[in-house]
């Protein structure tokens, strides 16, 4: 092959390599950002679980109070 064709092929290969390097850098950044999002989502789900547990605990307390009120009303013959 003539020298100019070799140089042309090398230039194209260098451009392809540079493009591939940019794609790989972008992919690493995207993976990093995705990992951060997944960790944040896990944290949010954990908080939702704690809130659900807290709500259930409050509901149990309300149920006990309601039972006590019913007993008091019954003793006082209000109901």
List the SSEs and their pairings:
Layout: H1 3-75
What does this molecule look like?
- This protein is mostly helical.
- The protein is built from one helix and no strands.
- The protein has one helix spanning 3-75.
- The radius of gyration is 34 Å and the shape is rod-shaped.
- The N and C termini lie far apart (105 Å).
- The model has no long low-confidence stretch (mean pLDDT 94).
Descriptive keywords:
79 residues, 1 helix, rod-shaped
Let me know the largest β-sheet. none
Q: Work out the radius of gyration.
A: 34 Å
Shape: rod-shaped
Distance between the termini: 105 Å
Mean pLDDT: 94
**Count of extended strands:** 0
- Relative strand content: under 5%
Question: Quick gist of this model?
Answer:
The chain has 79 residues and is mostly helical. Helices cover 92% and strands 0% of the residues.
């Amino acid at each position: 092959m003539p020298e100019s064709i070799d140089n042309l092929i090398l230039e194209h290969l260098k451009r392809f390599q540079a493009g591939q390097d940019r794609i790989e850098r972008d992919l690493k950044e995207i993976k990093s950002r995705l990992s951060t999002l997944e960790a944040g989502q896990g944290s949010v789900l954990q908080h939702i679980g704690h809130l659900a547990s807290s709500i259930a605990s409050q509901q149990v307390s309300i149920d006990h109070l309601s039972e006590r009120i019913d007993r008091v009303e019954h003793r006082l013959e209000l109901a």
